[in-house]
Amino acid sequence: MDARMDYFGNALAGKVFRHLNSANKLVADSTLPPATQELVKIRASQLNGCGYCTDMHTKDALAAGETQLRLNLVAAWREATVFTEPERAALELAEEGTRLADASGGVSEEVWGRAARHFDEDQLAALISLIAVINAYNRINVINRQPAGDYVPGQFA
């Protein structure tokens, strides 16, 4: 599969990416645990069918010390026993925040309440922002049909 265009080489797209990357850096530097951040990115990317981001974030998570077992179970996190309660709350919020069109009320009070029990206000702001940013990256890559599989951890550092 080939990308529809060289989005990464386009000048306007480069400006868009700089802004998305700046927002992503603010989240990355927040107190939201890095492992939770990667799990959320992976789960949203799976839901959106973004192979490029799924490839990137599973490889980045492995390089950062995440276990293969946990990565294998992200898609089935509800049935898995390897995730903490805060991680489960973040994954649940990521799912509802990614599937906004599937729910008439958006993110439910129950899901928000579970997340709010585990994260302070700054971490919740980071989590909301992370969900928004990864969904933007996913949509760019899915619309452009960006091929997956060749990402090398740290290549955009």
Automatic annotation (TrEMBL):
Any matching Pfam family: CMD
Every Carboxymuconolactone decarboxylase-like domain range: 23-96
InterPro entries according to UniProt: AhpD-like, AhpD_core, CMD-like
Domain of life, source organism: Bacteria
NCBIfam families referenced in this protein's UniProt entry, alphabetically: ahpD_dom
Protein name, entry field: Carboxymuconolactone decarboxylase family protein
Annotated source species: Promicromonospora vindobonensis
